[in-house]
Amino acid sequence: MALHSIRKARGCWSFIRALHKGSAAAPAPQVSEHTQLSWILSCMVRLPRLQHLHQWKAKTTKQKHDGTGGLLTYPVLQAADILLYKSTHVPVGEDQVQHMELVQDLAEGFNKKYGEFFPVPKSILTSMKKVKSLRDPSAKMSKSDPDKLATVRITDSPEEIVQKFRKAVTDFTSEVTYDPAGRAGVSNMVAVHAAVTGLSVEEVVRRSAGMDTAHYKLAVADAVIEKFAPIKREIEKLKLDKDHLEKVLQIGSAKAKELAYPVCQEVKKLVGFL
């Protein structure tokens, strides 16, 4: 829970910085044990293993093979985030399954060398394993996508959400069906609709019978807007209370530190640093 608290608080940190508007903003609380364990774990993984991770290959291709060392070793930092709190189950998207395999391998490798210490965490996948890009349904939806119409953000206005879904890639067939292999764009709309309404894909398709895809995209947009509305209201409320956000950051950091410090110290003893 401490890790969840600090991540939730850090998610609001951009709002705090915006409210402060300048360098006077206090630095976000840090838990240095994350980077300490990350370095130790990085000594246990070979370079080719990291270079073969699909996200590294995809992102460096987009960056014209100009990826940084930080990007290459980011999955090891993810592993440290998980193992430092001795997590047993981790909710992830489908695109993170390969990174979770690295986490599991690192836990097993550490245990084999130093004795049973880390639980080997399992991935938890929801029915919506991956949200696809609205502009390229063969790729995942990503906040770093340079095409602003490809990704829906919780903070988007209703007008922006409608525009993005109106421009979403589908095909020239009007009927709403679910066929990921043959109709990736429309199937992406159906999957998003099912995810935000809690309905099954089959039920979504049944209820959309007789609707053409142009009108259906607007129906999906409305469902997304409705789902995001209470979250957006909470964000707006939090933005008005920067003192509360800073307090959450401090409390979350302290709780995370309380859990992380003894684990990291024990790791250091096992590997011979202490």
Shape: globular
Structural class: mainly alpha
Mind telling me the C-alpha Rg?
A: 22 Å
Order of helices and strands: HHHHHHEHEHHHHH
Tell me, rounded to a whole number, the average pLDDT.
88
Strand content: under 5%
Binned, the helix content reads 55-70%
Biggest pleated sheet: 2 strands, parallel
Number of distinct helices = 12
Number of strands: 2
User: Are there runs of 5+ residues with pLDDT below 50, and where?
Assistant: 1-29
Strand order of the largest sheet: 1-2
Q: Span from first to last CA?
A: 28 Å
Oligomer: single chain
Report on this structure:
Belongs to the class-I aminoacyl-tRNA synthetase family. It is found in: Mitochondrion. With 274 residues, the protein is mainly alpha-helical. The chain has helices at 2-11, 13-20, 33-42, 47-51, 54-62, 69-83, 97-114, 158-166, 184-197, 201-207, 213-239, 242-271; strands spanning 89-91, 122-124. The chain has a two-stranded parallel ribbon with strand order 1-2. The protein starts with a helix and ends with a helix.
Features:
EC 6.1.1.2, 12 helices, Trp-tRNA-ligase, ATP binding, 274 residues, two-stranded parallel sheet, 59% helix, ligase, single chain, mainly alpha, tryptophan--tRNA ligase, 2 strands
What is the secondary structure topology, with strand pairs?
Layout: H1 2-11, H2 13-20, H3 33-42, H4 47-51, H5 54-62, H6 69-83, E1 89-91, H7 97-114, E2 122-124, H8 158-166, H9 184-197, H10 201-207, H11 213-239, H12 242-271
Parallel strand pairs: 1-2
Helix pairs in contact: 1-12, 2-12, 3-6, 3-12, 6-7, 8-11, 9-10, 9-11
